[in-house]
Amino acid sequence: MTDSAVNASDELPSEAEDRRDDLKWAAAGGIAAALIGFTGMAIVGTASSFEARRLLDAVLPTVRFAASSYVAGGATILALMLTLITFSITLDMEFRASHYNRIRQIAALTTAVIVGSVILLMFLSFPLGEADVDRGWYLGVYYAVLFGGAVTGGTFISIVLMLFYAVRELIHVGENPTEAAIIATETDE
Fold first, then answer.
1. How far, in Å, CA of 14 to CA of 133, rounded?
2. Which residue ranges of the chain lie beneath pLDDT 50?
3. How far apart (Å, rounded) are the C-alpha atoms in residues 68 and 53?
4. Which of 27, 67, 121, 151 is most buried as measured by Cβ atoms within 10 A of its Cβ?
5. 156: burial class by Cβ within 10 Å (0-12, 13-18, 19+)?
6. Cα 90 vs. chain centroid, distance in angstroms?
7. Alpha-carbon distance 186 to 189, whole Å?
8. Could you tell me which of 36, 32, 42, 29 has the C-alpha nearest to residue 143?
9. What is the pLDDT of residue 97?
10. CA distance 25 to 161
11. DSSP 3-state helix, strand, coil percentages of the chain (rounded to 5)?
12. Alpha-carbon distance 34 to 32, whole Å?
């Protein structure tokens, strides 16, 4: 193997490892945020079927606000992804496929959060307090709403962290394009 082939194979795993580390940190941030939401449930304690309706009424406005914020934030992030793609295409530099894969991952996860948040909002638009059902039903709905809020919030935190890592790499391109991990070099070919 030639020296250039060895160097190219050394660079690619390093960049791939950096991307995996970024994804691990983003996932860890999202999981930590979701766990904070679940910890809040544990602090409140388990609800009895008698308390569930009252607790549900108390938590609904907050979850509605959060879900609406995730929809608005997600739409903004998708618009920023278009700007990022335009920026990447108009530069005279060639970006590695991993850069575009990162943008694709952020866009896909953002779309999932928007869809999940809209479904949560649709569910919350039902007149839950007026349902003529067994009290145990409120308990299930209460925990489902808290679970949905925690998961969408945690996923949104992961998206923000992934976006931060993408922007950090682009800043590195601006500072020193010859050493930026997302710029393709002749040894990549």
1. 57
2. 1-12
3. 22
4. 67
5. buried
6. 27
7. 6
8. 42
9. 86
10. 8
11. 85, 0, 15
12. 5
